[in-house]
Design goal:
Strand content: 25-35%
Shape: extended
CATH architecture of one domain: Beta Barrel
Number of helices: 7
Largest sheet: 7 strands, mixed, barrel
Distance between the termini: 86 Å
CATH topology of one domain: Ku70, Chain: A, Domain 2
Radius of gyration: 30 Å
Strand order of the largest sheet: 1-2-8-11-10-9-7
Order of helices and strands: EEEEEEHEEHEEEHHHHH
Helix content: 25-40%
Structural class: alpha+beta
């Protein structure tokens, strides 16, 4: 069963909706243990105090902030609880914005917003209102010892929430987006558009998988059986010199999309309105 990440209220005007947040996605990866090369035993990492010259138990550990060299302010969970902002319990909608106006590089982690039983009607009212208006909700929520800027938007029959980076957290790179004196020919753009259209398809993430992780699993099974691992081959790439030639070869190498079945074509033709009869001229009519 999924665990609750945050519990509180969404507030919208005088409406309050009790909700819980659940993590919507997580990375899957193969992890390795550190072993002693000689006996293949797992290595333990001790908590060690160099001043007392001994192992330290976890219950002896406290949190501290270094404000000067080797000088710390000690804090505990009660201290953090005392200064928790209102957004630790209440997620107030600050603004409604168009989601397409937010650059994707501002998005961080995704969550499902699930209503508590008393708030289901107000929750679905918010979902339908946002879907009908085309707006997403901008709010703040405090969790994991920081206050996040978040965006909520309809997805399916519910709301999803995405934590966002603040503007000062988004890095600027001097070399990015500078005006260029490179000239692109209209014929090159047209061929590139044809290449895009040939590769276009409805979004379906289930078609893809992490090939690297798949190869790691295969490698582990090969080594478990005592077999030799075969090195993977990769094509050698070189800078493109002739764009037109490269685009033409790319289009020629792609499989052609299957033509529509004859029955489907007939159905489209039958659904199309019949052309209006041409009017006879007055001279021919009198004749």
């Amino acid at each position: 069963m999924a665990s609750t990440v945050w519990k509180g209220y969404i507030t919208f005007g005088l409406l309050s909706v009790p909700v819980r947040l659940f993590a919507a996605a997580r990375s899957e990866r193969i992890s390795f243990n550190q072993l002693h090369k000689e006996c293949k035993s797992r290595i333990r990492q001790w908590l060690y105090c160099p001043v007392c010259d001994r192992k330290v138990e976890r219950e002896e550990i406290v949190k501290g902030y270094e404000y000067e060299k080797d000088r710390y302010v000690l804090i505990d969970d009660d201290d953090l609880e005392k200064i928790a902002p209102e957004s630790a319990r209440t997620m107030e909608i600050l603004e409604f914005v168009k989601a397409q106006e937010i650059p994707s590089l501002f998005f961080d982690t995704s969550y499902y917003v699930v209503p508590e039983e008393p708030g289901r009607k107000a929750y679905h009212l918010l979902v339908e209102t946002m879907r009908a208006s085309g707006y997403a909700a901008l709010a703040k929520v405090a969790m994991h010892q920081r206050e996040h800027l978040v965006i909520m938007q309809p997805h399916g029959n519910g709301l999803t929430l995405h934590t966002m980076y603040y503007a000062e957290e988004v890095r600027q790179v001097a070399e990015y987006g500078q005006p260029s004196d490179v000239e692109v020919k209209p014929q090159e753009v047209e061929l590139a558009k044809r290449l895009v259209e040939t590769l276009a398809a409805p979004f379906d993430p289930s078609k893809y998988r992490d090939e690297y992780q798949h190869r790691v699993r295969e490698m582990l099974e090969t080594k478990r059986q005592g077999l030799e691992v075969t090195p993977a081959t990769a094509p050698r790439l070189a800078p493109v010199v002739d764009l037109m030639e490269a685009l033409q070869k790319s289009l020629a190498a792609l499989p052609r999309k299957p033509a529509k079945p004859a029955a489907e074509v007939r159905a489209i033709d039958e659904a199309a309105p019949a052309p209006a009869p041409r009017k006879r001229s007055a001279k021919k009519a009198s004749a």
